[in-house]
Amino acid sequence: MFKFNFDIEDADDEASIIDNSVEKAVASQSEVSQNPFKELPVQHLLDSLPSQLSCSPITITLQESADTIHLARRDLFDARFQAISEGTGVPENENDALDPHSALAFLEAPSDLVPGVYEGGLKTWECSLDLVDYLRSLEQKGNFFVFGKRILEIGCGTAVPSTYLLNAIFSSTKQDKDTVLHLQDYNDSALELVTFPNILLAWYMSPASASFRSTVSDANQSGENDSPIFPPPDPSSPAEIPITTEMKAAFETSLREYRIIIRFFSGSWNTFDLERTGGKYDIVLTSETIYRVDSLPSLLDLLFNACKPAASVTPPDPDTTSRLVLSSEPSYLCLVAAKVFYFGVGGGTTEFVQAVEQSRDRNGQKAEVKTVWEKNTGVKRKIMQLAWNVT
Ligand SMILES: C[S@@+](CC[C@H](N)C(=O)[O-])C[C@H]1O[C@@H](n2cnc3c(N)ncnc32)[C@H](O)[C@@H]1O
């Protein structure tokens, strides 16, 4: 059994469990096969939705102001119910019962991850909430603008930071430029069962869904249709949200109106194809992805390539160059949220910083990591900002 006990579903469980099977899981991790890069089209994800989503609030208490933010998140039991009802993971024979590739096996498993097979994306991990806290504090200081940016969330899982950003966009005035949001997870099943449902919920809980909801409610009142009743958008309360064809169409209309281009990618980090995703990003976010030392080189390569200013494309303008060499003012924002220690797997912030320094040596790039947020009580956690100097 391999269990961090650090995802928020397990917050009340007993302390972290380390046993021999953890050692075995970690020891075999370098032998695991890699998932190829793949795009899951929005249409496929819309088609994968069930007829109803059950959700509950995630509450984030802001460190600086003690205010709270509520975000709607699909209930894990609801994802499990979908997996069961669609037969995903229902064993047809004895051997299938052992198949770790099924979504249901991940949902039912007592383990938090199966290295190289399932990497923990179905559950929400604490540091994703920390990213929201930090992004909100930047926003409140006027240091963070999402509109018109290319954003990538790496190892998104339930995508709490992205749902926060999307909800903010859908709660603002319509923009005259495209905002690009790309979400990456190792597992297709995580994107289908939790990432995309949470993205849809972020829209539903925002003012952008108002015209759809009022149209349905007017039609219901006048007896013009027998559409299900859509509850008021309240991310602070549990809810059951019907999913209809009209609702899916309204979501897609809002994406166009707010000029949001959203795409979903699965596969291992070392297969992530930046050419196919359109190149580097302005904002790169990742949480709880540094737990395994063996994976750090591929994660760092992806972070570096996704953030790196296109030095070979952009002529070396002295002003631009001087901005890039200052870690406090890189031309992109790269944030890595993580626990200081991951018991049983060997990773943590110290190992991550070492890996950053080693990768700098290997690539001849100057990399800097600075801690921009931290929590030192209870389970220690940090948010680190990365910047690479282009020399
Ligand atoms: C522990 S989960 C964290 C999920 C989410 N960021 C959160 O904080 O709730 C780790 C995530 O990293 C991704 N991941 C881990 N190793 C990976 C790899 N080698 N390649 C691609 N994705 C990986 C998985 O998809 C998974 O969603």
From TrEMBL:
<dbReference type="GO" id="GO:0032259">
    <property type="term" value="P:methylation"/>
</dbReference>
<dbReference type="InterPro" id="IPR019410">
    <property type="entry name" value="Methyltransf_16"/>
</dbReference>
<keyword id="KW-0949">S-adenosyl-L-methionine</keyword>
<feature type="compositionally biased region" description="Polar residues">
    <location>
        <begin position="215"/>
        <end position="225"/>
    </location>
</feature>
<keyword id="KW-0808">Transferase</keyword>
<dbReference type="InterPro" id="IPR029063">
    <property type="entry name" value="SAM-dependent_MTases_sf"/>
</dbReference>
<dbReference type="GO" id="GO:0005737">
    <property type="term" value="C:cytoplasm"/>
</dbReference>
<dbReference type="GO" id="GO:0018064">
    <property type="term" value="F:protein-L-histidine N-tele-methyltransferase activity"/>
</dbReference>
<keyword id="KW-0963">Cytoplasm</keyword>
<keyword id="KW-0489">Methyltransferase</keyword>
<dbReference type="GO" id="GO:0005634">
    <property type="term" value="C:nucleus"/>
</dbReference>
<feature type="region of interest" description="Disordered">
    <location>
        <begin position="215"/>
        <end position="235"/>
    </location>
</feature>
<comment type="similarity">
    <text>Belongs to the methyltransferase superfamily. METTL18 family.</text>
</comment>
<keyword id="KW-0539">Nucleus</keyword>
<protein>
    <recommendedName>
        <fullName>protein-histidine N-methyltransferase</fullName>
        <ecNumber>2.1.1.85</ecNumber>
    </recommendedName>
</protein>
